[in-house]
Structure prediction request, 538 residues.
Amino acid sequence: MKYFCSCYYGFIFLLLFSLATLGCWGYNMEDFVHCIYLHSNNNDSNSTLIHTPSSSSYSYVLNFSIRNLRFSEPETPKPVAIITPSHASQVQAAVICCKSHGFQIRTRSGGHDFEGSSYVANVPFVLIDLINLNSITIDTEDESAWVQSGATVGELYYRIGEKSRTLGFPAGFVPTIGIGGFLSGGGFGMMVRKYGLAADNVVDAYVVDANGSVFDRYSMGEDLFWAIRGGGGGSFGIVLAWKLKLVPVPPTVTSFSLSKTWDQNAADLIHRWQYVAPEVDQDLFISAWVTAFNSSDGSGRIMEASFFSLYLGKATELLSLMEKTFPELGLKKEDCLEMSWVESMAFSASGFVSAKSLELLLNRSPLDNGRQKIKSDYPTEPISETALEGMWERFKNEELEKVQFILIPFGGKMNEISESETPSAHRAGYPIHIGYYVKWQHPDADSRHLEWTRELYNYMTPFVSKSPRAAYANYRDLDIGTNNEDRILTSYEEASVWGHQYFGNNFERLMEVKAKVDQFNFFRHEQSIPPAPPRVRI
Ligand code: FDA
Prediction:
């Protein structure tokens, strides 16, 4: 099947370009603000809902949820206004008024987008920051929760823990991640092997579409409901809230965090991990993280492997399982911490240091901020020791502040869910998820960290999935391709490069859904799903 539609593109482009520029020429902020209040049923005072560059709150609100300081420079393009809705009608008003005034929209929930796509654009844009849409309602009888997009995964864990010791939800490691972006891209965490991705456990949602109308699962239809559960944020509308199926967890779980230096056989353990972690009992999750950084006392490069684990059961069972499957790790009774599930999430939130402070889950400020870059891969078979050796050599580079090789085991439940069940296609056949993560502080170190990451990614090419090389939508990486910024509609050929990497064979269906719900591509950004053009058989 081939997409061919240059006439269609030309016509739509001219039409939308004229509308957009008319709006930009004519805009004044007073008019825009008036429009927002006119269309909102539930009005807060001016200062809490709309923040313009002249408001004293503007910079604070903008910066509060920026998680990648690479996109917080004076020259970074800033929104013409920030809207912080606390009611659905204010989101609807924002969509209607941005459209009529020719502004693009960036939607932000937690602000963790690795490329800043939720708060940066190179065209006049309005930031809709959902930070005040953060309510969470837990229903222990129904074993479900309604969670607004602006809540964080940490807040969700905390609220579940308040109500039950035997319910949980399979979301991510870091508590400050926003529910909106996390579920939009799939979302994995320490129960991925038992319960799949977070988006696999969504049973309903409310979405505002490009016309400013609100739909639930029934009224939006199964195609759109399918697309929003993993098809990437910022493409189909603004998801206001999600209904989640909570999952059973035992009253006592066991966590451990074990670190090994290179002298303690860390390299062998990482190699061996690949054979064990995706295959063991699905109650057991062991992630492996190799971190390299310069020691603070100037004594050189430190490189260590850490194994962070959650076992859905007691320590004695875990010890016997580890003895059978991964004795090389040398796990001892004193390494195992028994706790409730919510405490295990607090343990993760603390960087696997302490499970004591559940309040840490409610803190929206990260433990540390910085400049970051991430790339992802899915090897389809274990990476050889020799190939890994080449990576470790690169990690020794003392010019890099902090680099991490993050290995997440899939398998288990992920093998039971078909690749087309949600847009996240990488399941059976993709036993391991890899993240190459680099973090640094100073702008003058940007290019060397970015170039190093790209070189490492090139180096890894022979050892990971191919045709296409799979990537994770939630680890956004603009290096793998972007929509053409100068045109409202991107061609299939351009978008399919990164689209197939993120979504495999689901990419075409995502484009079809987009064409159905947002044919003029109102919700768009560098890697938003473009609408499928009408098909012409040739
Ligand atoms: P943000 O608000 O930046 O949104 C991300 C994207 O979704 C943007 O395109 C945005 O426009 C869109 N979006 C946001 N809210 C929306 C809404 N309500 N409706 C429609 N579109 C919306 N991932 C993972 O799977 N497991 C993990 O453990 C981690 N850990 C992790 C740690 C750290 C420190 C970072 C920076 C990132 C991760 N991630 C992760 C990746 C994370 O899941 C990914 O960046 C999410 O998109 C973040 O969601 P936020 O809402 O925080 O981002």
The first strand starts at residue 50 and ends at 51. The radius of gyration is 23 Å. Residues 253-463 form a domain with the Vanillyl-alcohol Oxidase; Chain A, domain 3 fold (CATH 3.40.462.20). The chain has a mean pLDDT of 93.
